[in-house]
Every structure is written in structure tokens, then in C-alpha cells.
Sequence to fold (1716 residues):
Amino acid sequence: MRQKFLNSKILLKILGLFSVIVVISSSAKGQSEANRLSYLDGEDPFYVGLNFPKLTTPQWVGEDGVEAVVTLGIDDMRGHERYENFCRPILERLKEIDGRAPLSIFCNSITPTEPHLQKWLKEGVTIEVHTLTHPCPILGNRNFIPAKNTYHGGVDLLNNIANNLPVAFRTPCCDSQNTPSPRVFSELLMNNNSAGQFLEMDSSVFNIFTKEDVSIPKSLTTDKDGKGRFEKYIPFESYVVTIENYPYPYSIGNKIWEMPCMVPSDWEAQHLHGNSNPVTVEDWKAAIDTTVIKQGVFNFVFHPAGWVSNSQMIEFIDHITESHGQKVKFLNFKEARERLTKNLLGGQPLKAPNGQDNGVRLLDLNNDGYMDAVIANENIQQTRLWNAKLNKWETSDFPFQIVRNDSVANRKNTGAKFGILQSSGYASVYISNNTTEGIWHFDGKSWKENKISTLGLELNNQKLQTSIDGQDNGVLLRDTNNDGICEIIVGNTKNQAVFMWNKIEQKWLPLNFSLPKNVIITREDGRDNGVRFVDINEDGFLDVIHSNEKRYSLHLYIPTPILGWGVGWTREVMAGLRSDADSIPMIVRGGEHNNNGAWFHSKHLWIQNEDTAHLPNLVDRRSFEELLRGVIPLPKPPDESVKAMQLLPGYEIELMASEPLVMDPVAFEWDEQGRLWVAEMADYPLGIDGKGKAGGRIRILEDQDNDGKYDHSTVFLDNLPYPNGVMPWLDGAIISAAPNIIFAKDKNGDQKADQVEVLFKGFGQGNQQHRMNGFEYGLDNWIYGANGDSGGVITSPKNNISVNIRGRDFRFHPKSLKFETQAGQTQFGRRRDDWGNWFGNNNFSLGWHYKFPEQYIRRNPKLIIPNNRQQIGNYDRSHIINFISKPLQRFNIVGGAENHITAANSTTPYRDELFGDNSDQLLFVSAPAYNVIRREILKTKGISFYSERPETDNGQEFIASKDSWFRPTMLKTGPDGALWIADFYRLVLEHPEWIPNDVEQKLKLRSGFDRGRLYRVYPTKYPARNIPNLSNKTNAELVAALDSSNGWQRDTAQRILVEKNNASTKQYLDELLNSTQRPITRVHALYTLEGINQIQLEHLILGLTDSHPGVREHAIRISESLFRNNQADPLHITLKKMVNDSNIRVRTQLAFSLGEWKSPTAGNLLAELARDCSGLPDLQIAIASSAKGHSVGILNKILTQSRGNSFNQLINNLLTLAGTEASEIEFKALLKNLISDTDKLDAWQIIAVSDLIENTKNRGFAKINLGNKSKLINSLNSTINNRELNPNNRTAALRLMVNLINDPKRLNTVLQGQLNAYSPNQLFDFTLDELSKLDSSIDILLTHWKSYSPNRKNRVLQHILNNEKKTLGLLSSIKNNLIQKSEINTAFQQLLKQHTNKAIREQAFTYFGTQNTKRNELIIERLGKVTSLKGNLANGETVFTLHCAACHKLGKIGNSAGPNLSALGDKTPRSLLTAILNPNEAMEDRFITYSLTTNENAQFTGMITNEGANSITLMDLNGQNRQILRTKIKSLSNLGRSLMPEGFEQVLSNQNMADLFELINASSIPPKNFQGNKPILISESKKGRLMLTAANAEIYGDSLMFEEKYENLGFWRSNNDRAAWTIETKQSGKFDVILKWALNGPSKINQIQLRIGQNEIIFKVPSTTTWDQYESKHIGTIQLEEGKQRVTAQALQPLNGFLMDLKHLEIKRKNPQINN
Fold:
């Protein structure tokens, strides 16, 4: 049973059931309409689509009232019996309609004389061709002759049936495989057999209805789950012999009628959901209903195989007759062909009687969306124009024959070339041969010749000919420049040229470019030479791809000279000979059967022929991305760039300004007049001269004609160094341009700056992307700016300040110029929402909310907060960007792009109501590296937020552009309610320091400096409003403007009122406060009153008692002025009620603001808040920030009422403060309150007592009385050594003991007891810290050195290197061989070599060697060696864990302090090797190493990972974070280098490097998804077990899968198959490893390699006899570290057959009783 199941699964996989279904995309947007007739020049079977002209049923059926046709075609007949049984009920049901039984049977080899065939023929059945032998595929086995024989033989056979003339063909397996190749059409269907017989119809191409057709109700094209009703039947991802939304007959190569089949066929239906599923019938009904609406044809494909029943067919026919009646006509294929010939073509068939071209051309002559016809042969020259209004054909003459008979009656093409040569868009035709020359234009009724229209069409003094003796001369009409008029392209063996009509000279002129070298449209014999005009890079212009049996090439069209390329097909992407390894597959192949079966579909070049049948899905393929590898995209004009944007449905984007009006915009702001001030960083990236010369500008845009768009611009100020922020202010603007913030003033009103003042200076000037930037106006009337992460010590010429802003943003008051740091460090665009919540981000994060205002936190200098940033976009894979632009847009991504967000900025809350009901929840983020703008939905969580993607997004970004130059920077809600976007519009976004030198040399870094755009986006239903002018408003009108839904309008009105500072405004504000229904307006009114110094008690009480919590929250803030002046007693009763406010944000703000009130009342209110803050950490932080002067009182209230872990954070913070505030009496009372019984101390009490004692050590208090101290110490000692207890409790006990034992010797003994291999990390680290204070020697630290793991040794080394004396001791130990040199890792070696102590440096060089300073030469030397080796993923994880995981994150492994390696764009070996061996080449400031010395002279080295108001967090070389209060820092210095050391070449072998590269490159591939499989963190149980099941594994590789039925990992047969788990042990120790597996058949030589932490187990997998027989076996014992580790399982190569079915891995602690 099991083996049978496995075989069936393999079969299903072969059939493609496990493939992902994709929707086939339509052709690129922006294609010129002038090329709409190009299909007439080719033989592509798949060129039609939704927007192609329709050939509706009324145009050809010839029967009034009929709007749709159904043909029923049953396949594969060899014998008639089964078909008679299956079809008989269907035939009888058809007869009930009109006495006919129109059905077509597609046959293989049958007996022509079978009498039953005549019965069928009399009933209305036709017998059609399906080949003799039903080969699947018809083209296969590298031999064309069998296909030729089986096709032509089938035509011959069926012509021998009396009374039967076959007209139609269906390719075998066309509904399940890619069999209808263009080669089949061109080389079989379009040719006669040896008897001169031929067919005129085909029905092999499948049409798929999709929701893209908006004329069809979505209920017909989509299922209830919102997915495509018909797309689901596509059998596999690469099934591409399809068209979309075109249910009409069409011609292929002007000689074959294609009657497209309807999805689903019966095979497709059973393939998806089994035999006779009722869903199939319902979908047929939806398809025919859609077909009737479209007035199309429904060609039904079915078989008598039991996939559907004949009763279901009858049910379908019943639906048609009942729902549509006589609107639907049932026809067989012969009848369809007859009606097309008679009614559409006036009696002239598509093929001539001899099977050759009959001069019929189907085209939309007048561009009305309906197909028309031209018939031009020796019998008739007629134009047939469809009049859709009158529902009839109108005829007129055609001026010449399209085909002529030669002397032996062979049809010869006269060279008629159709195209668009008129601005009307109507068709034109050009012909030039030995007898006819001219250009005729269709004028809507008839053809008119323009006598001068061929002037200039000469080459080498000879007239250009389109055909010579009936042979094509390689002349085509194509619109190359997208001006709406075709050019004439010539490409034959003698001449190449491109002619363009010159309106002024009224003649054709040759352009200064032609087809690329060796690109020839036709061969000498006039046959196709394999040249195609296709928009490969989707810029809207036709590119040239050429491939035949001799050579190939791809050239992109350049519309405007740029980067050294002139206009034309001048950008060569690739070119070479057929023998090249990576050549483009042949489009034509020469020889008798020239067409090679190539077509363009779904952004790929596909090839299907007898030589590709062995490939997956029968096809060779090249994606456009593959073809474009290495292409630099070209800029688009503004209107074309707009067309390249894809917005979510329901939104519109509008271009508001572009070059030359605006250039290089990165920031903008409106002034009160509605003028737009723009900061233009024209000098990016290296100055306008490439050497740093400043050239930035501030520009003012105006709408002088009042049409709603800006039409005039003035440069206000130029020659600024990289300006990136502007805010109009008074009579000028505040501008950010590091190193300064300046105020530029226009003194005479000419819109030019006359005076420039420096307000603040000292901002860092590193990478321009990381500089300080601004600005945002706060509710509190301060101006806020972003740090940018370049830092600086800020001073002001106008104010005596000196503020270090490293790691923090800032704000300043525009009047007083008071300057303060603010919580958070934003890279670009610190923004707020309506309610004053501040957001920021950096390149790799969607954004953060800054929870705690820093001015509150810094009031309590002992308060350390873990992190002030609440991550936005904290859902799974939120960092993945769904971009649609070309993958090589980023120049620091060589060889392929990833879709991890790497340049997020301007996290912007939407601030209006125009965007609908959830407007106040919308958050937008720009991602310029990927030409995308992301939309998030904010959700409240406590006092902060998290975000989600809107459900309707379905992965699509809010805005995504195909234009790789689209670089959205700043976003902002405009005065009109729209979202405004600054588009920097540059080719190169990356700073040169991040661009590889070999790439940089090919670029013009400032490409686009003369371009730039401003856009706005708004809902289609709610157009943007007019931009108001507030400059001429009275005070009353400005106050009224506060009552706007628009954030800009409220901010601006408030700012103007505050600037005016007019006390008379108070009366209007009073009225507004009492009348407005808009809560946010009441907030603005309160802040405006505060800003004009008119805030009064009654205003505050009104705000504090407001029904809206946001108003109450801000009223508390505004009350702080009364608190500071100790005038808040009248508010006491109101504030007391607010202690119990239902809103957590209100209570938290109350706690923050009470810190401004130096009154016992504030302390009492804080104590009341504290009593109810259990489990509310943010509220506890707020209370702690305000507790200065109140700590003892608050503690007494908490300790008498509530105890426990939920108050730990607050109690610890209060005790730290109380240590400096409490009197001795209060101290003792607190101590007594904390521990009434020393025999029963909980963990929180132990921690609390330690906090209190530590913080009062220097107070000189009398001896502490803790009762029986000896008994307490013994109790603590028992806790410390109890391995069953939580490490936190044990560490707390040791900490208290350290505070109680005064005897250093005894304390030393206690501490040494914890320096062993089994102490938890937390306890071990604390011990190291305390021993460092007691003893400066290293002997104690090295006592157990040899038993330590590498991780633990590194922890010891970190402590040693924090002390100079100990460092010297370390070197001495190395000298005496107590420590081996190899035990000192590269990072610590570098620290020693760069030590400030000369003696240490010299010894380090002696032991570890000198550093190789020629890093680039080293990279070149190692590169070839590394790339020649094959990497191993499992070994790569080991290398990464050992050397990289302390700082870097890769998937689920490691620490995210350093760059996330999964998100690396450039993962080429050269780039990775450079990053590893030369880490200081291009280093961001945030990864710089710092040296910190404390007041106690302890030294720490590491990277700053977070800065708060009162503390700095330093991450050391082990990835351990240490928070240090600023008050305890003696010095902090920048070491100017990366924390990542140089010298890895001495540690990592070439194979190590190859393994690591393999892992990094695989990291962007997520684990595979299977039903029932969910990877989780596997934590050690109380019994010391870790169970690694198949259901919890991460699964990677080609074939490995989770088999839910058997709960195992099966199909383990590919070399890249791999399983992985993340485990977490509670403490270090030894573990047994047990494997449970099954393996069928005789034993093989396969081995599994297990990597568990830093251990390796290799196990030869024996057979268990059958797949159903599992065995368990102990396969090894290992030593594991404490904490998270990775486990990987992978086969050792070579792998012979299946490795095993893995049930689970069990890892069991050998001594489980020590674990809890």
C-alpha cells in the first residue's frame, strides 16, 4: 500500500499538480497603439487578448438574434462504439433544439468505411482531425518527420470518409500540456499534404476569462474566495498555450482560423477536483453566460473517459437553452467555417482552393474595436467594414491584390504592409513591387492614395520594395518612437534603414540609426530570419530580439540619448554565435521547416518543438529578467512614468510638477499662501562637480493660473550642501543642510533669500542619506527633526547650548531656540499623526512608534528603559517588498535583487478624512530602492501601535512602479487631502560608498539631476480638494480653519496664530472649544491658547473632562505649565478622577505629567496610579519617570497593597531612586516592609532588597538589620546552587549575597563556585562582573578554562579585555601555553592588536601575526579558490553560528544588531568576500565600535545598539547587550572601525567561506509550506527532552516534503534537501540523540549529516525493510550550550535513491534532574 501511494505521488508531481498556478500577465503597458496591426506580419497563435478588436458572433453567424455560438468537440476517437454510447443522449438532446445534432468528433486512426460514420454525418456530426496516432506531444523525440506524417496522414484519412470534408484540427493533449506550438501551426496546419489536402481551422488554444475584463460581473469570473474561477484550472505554472478574455475566432498567419477552446475542458476539471464534480458544471454555466455577454464562441473540449458524465453535458445544454434560448446557436466546425466564409468574408475562404494564401486580412480598419476584413485576390478586391451600430457589413473597393498567381498558379505575396500612418489611428497600407507602388490611407469609408506619400523611400538610388518576385523583402511598419505613427523599417541582406515621415518636408527621411549589425528581418529567399520586435524591458518601446541557427542578439531601444547610448537599438544586452553556451534559443532554425516554435507570453520567450519535449513542461524558456540581466533602465518622461505605476484599485495618481519646474526633490512643505517650498538635493551624491561642491536648492512653486497645478517656480536659495528639509516660517524658511540648520529670509518680497542666519550647527556630515533632516511642526508648537544617524554636538550662535544628539532625534523652539534631544533615532522623516504620536524608521525597518517623550524620562537620571521604539510592521514577512520594477535597479545589487526592504523612509501617518473610514489608521512608507510606497493599517496596542497590511492588498503594494528611476522620498498629507510624494527620480540612489568600483565606473552617478517629479494620490471616488490660501485670513477665520479635517490646515492655522500672538484671538478659540464636534480641533484650540499664553484654568478643566480620551490626554500635557508653577491645586479633584480613567493613554500621560508638579499631591496621585498598574509596564515607566521626590511614598503604597512579579519593574525603578532619596528611617521602614520574614523570600523580594542596599551603600546608614543574617546567607546559598531553580532567581540570590557578605575572601569563594561549565549564562556573567571588582588577576577566571565551550571562553575573554591588567595577564597565559593562541577568536585578536597600550599591541602582533593590509589583493587571491568549491548548507550554519551569529541575523539564527544577511542585495562571492575580509571599506556609522570607560574605570568595547535619555546600550563581541547609565560613564570614544574584525582569512578556510556563502545565498528562500507542517521553537521540557518532529521542521530543497498522513519527512532524494529546527536548552550539558526513521528495500550507502549546535553526527542509514516499519536508534552523545541553537539534517553526497523517511529526532539530557 505504501509503495503504491509513493508511486502515485510521484506521478502527480510529474503531471504538475504540485506546481503553483499563476495568472498570465497581459502585454506591457504603454505600448504604442500604432503597432496594433503588427500581428499581420507573423504566425503567433497567442497574440489576441482583452483589448484586441472583437470578432463577435453577429459579425459572422448570419442569423438574426444569435449572439453566441457553441461548438462541441469530443476528442481521441479510434473506434465508434464508446463514442456512440457516450454521445447518443447528447445528440438526442441537441436534436430537440432544432432537429440537428451539431457535434464534431476529433479522430485518430479510424476505419473510413465504418457505416456508423454515415449515420452521424446525416445527423449533423462532423469528423475532424486529431492526428493518426495521438502523439503527446505531437512534436517530440528530436524528429519532426513523425509529427508531419501523423498530421498529414490524419488529414488524408478523414478525407476518405464519404460525405465528409474535415476542416478542423485539435492538437493532442492541448488541454494538459504545452503541445500547440507555433511550429505546429506554421509547419503543419499552414501546409498541404502530398495529395494537396489541407485544413482551415484549429481549436487548440484555450481562452481563460479573468476578472481583468470589467465588462463581466465579477460573480462570473471569480469564486467566492475572490480567486479566479477559471484560472484555477490551469494545470501547471508554465502552461502558456493560452489567451485571456478573447472568446472570438481569429486568424493565425492569415491562413488558419483559430476557434479558441473554453476553460475548463473535462480533463482540466477532473485534474483539479476529480471526476464529475458539480463545480465543473457550474463553472461551465458561468463560462457560457460570460460568452453570451461577450457575444463570443464557446468551444467545448470533452472525452468519453468518465471525467464528466453525459448527463452533466445535457445539464449544461439545458442551462443554455433555458437561460439564453435562441441567443445561442450550436454549430459543428464545418458549419462555423462555412458561416465565417459566407457572412464575414463575402464568400471568400481564408485559404485559396489550393490551400495557399487567399489574400484575406482581418484587421480593425477604423480603430472602433471591431474586426474588419480586406479580401484582395484575383477574384475580388474588397474592403468589408463592420458597422456596429447598424449590425451590418459595409463594403468598398480595395486598391490592389494582396496575392497574385504566378505562371503555375502558386500564390505570391505582393508585399502589402499594414500599419498606422495617420494621426486618426485608422489603418494604412504600403506596397512597393515591380507593378504597384504607393501608400493608401483608410479614411473611415474607403481607401485613398496619397500620391506623394512614398517620396524619400529610396536606398542606393533605387526605390524601396516590399516584395521582389513574390518574396518578402524585410520591410515592416512599426512605431519605434511611440509618436503614434509607424516608421518603415528595412532589414534584408542588402539594406538596413529606418524611415520616418517628415511633416515639414512631406517626405520620408532616413533616421541616423537602423537595425543593429547582423540583424536582418528576412533571408535571401524572403523567409523569416528570426527577428522579433518585443518590449522586453517594458518601457513601452519595442526592443529587437534576434535568434536563428547562426547567431542571436538582444538590443534595447533608447528613446533619448543617455549614458553614452544614442537613439535607436543601441543598447546591446547580448549578442553572439549559436555555439555560445548561454545563447538565446532559436526563433527560427532554417531548413525546410523554418519556424522553431517560439512565442512571447507572460514575460517569457517560450520555445516548444521536437527538441524541447524532454524539458520540463515540454518547453525551453527565457524570462525577460534573464534576458535583461545587467541592463541599466532608461528614464521615462513624466507622463510615461505615471503610466508605469500600479496603484491599488480605487486610487488615482496625478502628476503635479515635473522638470524643469522642479528637480531632485527630497522634501517639501506648503506655506500659508499655498505655495510649495521644495528642498532639491541636486548635488547628490558627491557634489555637482563630483568633488563635493555644494549645489542644493530651495525652490518655491506657485500655481499662477489657478488650475490646481504648479506652473511657476523660483529658486529661493541655492548652493546649499545637500539640503533635505524645508519649513516656511515668517518671511522665509528654516532649512536643514548639515552641518547647519539655517533660517533664510526674504526681506524684499522677491521670493529670493536676502539674509541667511545659522540657527544651529554641529550636525554630522557623513553619508548624505544619513544626515540630519527636518521638519515637522509639533502640536506643542516646537519644531521636530530627525537625527539621520550622523549625530553631532549641537551649538547655536544665538543661544548658549551644547547638546550631543548621538542616537537621538531633536526638537527646538522657533522663538527661544531652546534645543532638546528626543526619543528615537530616525534616518529620514520623523513624522507625527494628528494626536501627536511620533514615528520614525531606518533603512531596514518599516517604522517605529516612539512611546515615551524623552523630556519625561530624563527627569529620573537613574531610570533605564529597555527600548523606546515599538516596531511597526511586526507581522510575519512584513519586510518583503512586492516590487514590479526591474531587479537590477540597485547598483549595489550585482547579480540579482532581493525583495527585503532596504531603504524605508518617511513613515507617514495620513492626516485627513479623504481616504475613507479608516483614514486615521493609515500609515505610508516609501521604499525608493524598490520604487514602491507601502500602506499599513495602524492598530492600537496599549499606549502604542502595531500594524497590519490591509486585507484588500493581497500582497500588492499601495504604489509600485515599473519605472526603476521612480524614487519616492518624502511623503506628506497635502492641504488638499491627497497624499503627496516627492520623486527624486534618479538612476543611482545608493551612495557611492555602497557601489562596487567596477559598477561605479560604468555609471553617471548624477544621472537624473535634471529631473524630478511631485505627485499626489487620492481615492477615485473622492477627488482632492483645492489648496486653501490662509495668508489673508483674519484671526477669526484662522480659528475657524482649526476646525478642518485636514492636518496641514490645522497645523498652519495654529502656527500663524501663535506667530501673531494676538490675545484677542482667545474669544474665538473659546467659542470653538465649546462648539466644535471634532475632538482633534479641541486639541489644536488648547495648544493655540497655550502658544499665545492665553490658556486658563477653565480651558484645562474643559479639556480634562472632555468625552474624548485624546483631548483629555493633551489637556493633561498642557496643564504642565500649572504644575511647574505649582498652581495646579484647583485641578486636584479633576486629576484624582483621572487616576481611574478608562483609557490607558490618559492614565499614562497623567503619570508622566505629574512629574512636573513638585507637590505632595502629585506624589499621592502617582501612588494611586501605581496601585492599579499591575501588568502595565508602560504605565510603570511613566510613574517611575515622575517619581523623583515621591519614591518612598509610592513604594509604601505599593508594598502595603500589592506584591508580585507584575510590579517588579516599577518597584526596582523606585527602589533605585529611593536609594538616594530615602532617609535612614525611611530606608529601614522600606526594608522591613519588603522582608518581614527572611525565611520566605520570593525572587522579586530578593531583587528589591538588593536594589535598595546597592543604592544606599554610599549613604552612611547604620548597619543593616536583616534578622538572622547567617541563616539568610545560607538560604541564599541554597538557592544559588539549586540547579532546579530558574537562573533569574539564582542570580538574584547571588546578587543579594554579594551585598550582604563583607568578607572579600569568603565572597571570592562563593563567586568562584559559579565559574563552571554548567552555570547558566546569566549567573556566569554576573559572577565575572563581581570577580572583576574583587581581583585584578585572571587566575580565577581561567581555573575551569579547559572545560568551557567556545561561547563561554569568549565571555571570559570579553571580561578580561575590559581590564588592562587582566589583558596583560591573558598575554602572559598565552606565552606560558596556559591558553592556546587558536582559542582567541579573530575579533579579540583585533582588539588586542589595536589596543591603546603599546606593550599589549606588540605582544599581540608577536602571537597572532601582523595584519594583512592589502585587503583588496587578499580578496582577489581568495576569490578564485572559494568560488571553485561547492558549499555545504549544514556546515555553513555551523560556521555562521560560531563566527557571525553574535552580531548578524540570518533567517532565524543570530542577533539583528548588525546587517541582516538575509536582506543583503549583493550576495555574489566577491561582495561577500569583501564584506568579510575588508569590513571597514564601506561602514555605516551605526556599526562603529566605541570604547566606554565607567566611573569605576571598568572598560567596555562594543557597538551602540540603543541610546535613551539616561543610558547607552553597548553590544560586545559576544552579542551581549549592556545598559549603562550616562551618569556612570566617564568617557566614550569612537574607535573609527567596524565591530566586525579584519583577519578572518586566518580563521576561515576557503571551504568555510564556500559553506558560508552557500548558506547566505540560500537564506532568502523561505521554508516550503505543507499542510500540517508548522516550524516552531522547540524548548527543553522539564524532563530534559527536545522532540524534533517532522511537523515542526523547516523544510528546504527540491523534493523533501512533509507527508501529513504519515507525519514524516519523505521524498528525501535531492542533494539540496534539508531539514532544520531551532531548539532552546535551559542550560548547558550532555545530551543523547535518538533518530526514528524508515527506509524501504535493501540497505544503501546513504549517510545523514546532523549538525546540532556545534556538534556533528554522521550516520549511515540502514534499511528498516519497508516504509511502514520505523526504527529508533541512539546515534550519538553531544554537548550543548545553554540557549537557542540550530539543528540541521542533510544527506551527505552522493545520494543514491531515497535517504529515509524521518519521523523525529529526540535529544535527551543525560542528567535531567538538574533541569527545570
Q: What stands out?
A: DSSP finds 42 helices and 84 strands in the chain. Residues 80-98 form the longest helix (19 residues). The longest strand covers residues 68-77. Confidence is low (pLDDT under 50) at residues 1-29, 887-897.
